Amino acid sequence: MEKIKLLLVDDHAVVRSGLRMLLETQPDVTIAGEAENGADAISLARQLSPDVIVMDITLPDISGIEATRRIHETCPNAAIVALTIHEDEQYFFEMLAAGASGYVPKRAAPEDLLTAIRAAHRGEVFLHPTMAKALVKDFVSRVENGKAAGVMDGLTDREREVLKHLAEGASNQDIADVLGISANTVARHRENIMQKLNLHSRAELVKYAIRKGLIEA
Fold this sequence. Notes:
53% of the residues lie in helices and 13% in strands. The relative contact order is 0.10. The chain has a six-stranded parallel beta sheet, sandwiched between helices. The protein is globular, with a radius of gyration of 18 Å. The protein folds into two domains: 4-124, 3-Layer(aba) Sandwich (Rossmann fold); 131-200, Winged helix-like DNA-binding domain superfamily/Winged helix DNA-binding domain (Arc Repressor Mutant, subunit A, Orthogonal Bundle), CATH 1.10.10. The protein contains ten helices and six strands. It has 217 residues and is α/β, with parallel strands linked by helices. The mean pLDDT is 87.
């Protein structure tokens, strides 16, 4: 089995140690190196050619956003996943604009980080549920205000129902209980919705953020 080669970037040794303990138990993952600041991250990315970089945003020298931007320019084959305490949309979209392929809050479950790493390695974008909820809520608001008329025409009636509940902040299980379907079915509907709305592509997410004025073109 070809393993995913990781570079861990965080200024706290305890966090890096915890990540290493978690990730080294995975049969498809290997830790290539660690960095405690942005400058070292950029240097090690060039030296080690990792497949995926787990990047903190708050670093003691340059920010994880700037480090991501520089790494993305010089090492475009390295996928970058943000692992951060910051959960507001500004940081989220700035990281995407810089070249990140995933965004995971530090309070998330370990499985979310693993899913993000594997998705990034496949060339996909990982959208954590908390960020998906914010995007969906804003999207529905834009539709209701006539700013995205016709965009939901491709959704089925069931997907529209799920979308409405997601925008209200309901969990998969909450929606399943209301609609009388399984939580797994809700999850599949959610994935279909995000794909149909072009919110799984990093490029489309960045365009979306520009339209909202969250980042500059």
